[in-house]
Amino acid sequence: MFTASLLYRNRGAWLGAAAIALLCVLIGTDMAKDSQQRLQAARLLTQGGDPSRAPPIFRRYGCTGCHQIPGIAGADGQVGGALSGLQKRVYIAGVINNTGDNLVHWIVSPQIFSPNSAMPKTGISEAEARDLAAYLYTH
Ligand code: HEC
Q1: Is residue 8 pLDDT above 60, yes or no?
Q2: N or C: which end of the chain has fewer CB within 10 A?
Q3: Are 46 and 104 spatial neighbours (Cβ–Cβ below 8 Å)?
Q4: Is 109 a pocket residue for ligand 1 (Cβ < 6 Å)?
Q5: 43-57 pLDDT, tens digit each
Q6: Is the Cβ atom of 63 under 6 angstroms away from ligand 1?
Q7: Atom 6 of ligand 1 has which residue's CA nearest to it?
């Protein structure tokens, strides 16, 4: 009886805690759904690019020395702009429309679109560039 009356007296607090717990579950589920949808969209846009393979590729081709890249430790280069919010951009490097194909081809060979660009051709393959593009579209 003691416990029951204690529960009864504190019912406001219990209800509050239950409501907060429910809200956390709902927000958590929503965020998981959101990131799942973003991942699917990035895969489609880049024809199968896999963001999880991207971190060592960014390092291997020196992207990190020239760009700030969200979520990549040590990617603090200042030669080019920060590579964040790519999914919201209208243009890539101010010269081409922001489509998955264009982003992949820019990463492989910027001079195709912008002959005087200071971004060098790094020797990255198209498949690797797809993984990087998928990463950039999910961050
Ligand atoms: C030597 C420095 C350097 C390296 C290495 C480099 N970039 Fe760049 N990058 C630049 C510069 C400078 C620009 C701006 C180019 C322009 O506007 O013509 C740029 C532009 C870009 C853009 C367009 C950004 C925007 O704001 O529209 C993307 C995307 C990009 N780089 C990705 C990469 C990736 C991925 C790698 C690695 C494979 C890489 N870069 C390697 C210097 C570099």
Answers
A1: yes
A2: N
A3: yes
A4: no
A5: 999 999 999 999 999
A6: yes
A7: 63
Q: Is 83 in the pocket of ligand 1 (CB under 6 A)?
A: yes
Tokens 């999910």 belong to 138
Q: What is the pLDDT of residue 1?
A: 56
Q: Are 77 and 65 in contact (CB under 8 A)?
A: yes
Q: Determine if ligand 1 sits within 6 Å of the CB of residue 130.
A: no
Closest alpha carbon to 44 in 104, 96, 113, 92: 104
Q: Could you tell me the two tokens for 75? A: 């990617």
Rounded distance between C-alpha atoms, residue 19 and residue 79, angstroms: 49
| Atom 30 of ligand 1, nearest CA residue | 107
C-alpha separations of 62 from 67, 82, 118 in Å:
9, 14, 14
**Residues listed for the chain:** 139
Q: Of the given ranges (11-25, 33-47, 91-105, 109-123), which has the lowest mean pLDDT?
A: 11-25
Average pLDDT of span 20-37: 85
Rounded mean pLDDT of the chain?
92
